[in-house]
Amino acid sequence: IAELRIKLNEIGVISFGRRLRKDLVDLAANHGISDTISSERTVVEGWLGKPKGMFQVAWERGWIDQTQVSKYQVEAPCDAFGVEDTSFSLKEILSNCDDFMNEIPQLQYIIESLGGFCQMSPKYHPEIAGEGIENLWG
Q: What is the pTM of this model?
């Protein structure tokens, strides 16, 4: 709408006050101005607000051999004899990073940042979570 107002003002048609979009389009059509707006914006793809995969993280850290990109997998690929080649395993590559090894879950971070105490147990194993957990949640 703002661009239509500018185009109308450029040819001397002044549109005072608030007008509906339909009125501006009709006014522009009567004066031979197209109501379609051509945009020359370029879309810049990036990772803002998007999750990164393991491959992208390893790539950004310089751990991906550019000549053998197709060999990298999440799990370690096996050769013809069933021997795992961990040099192309993304899990193995990233598991050796200090920031990945020392990462705490978001729930634990929030609780601790609010002054609480959070002790995490392995998922789906309540038998090793410790005694009394059933009584603490009541």
A: 0.43
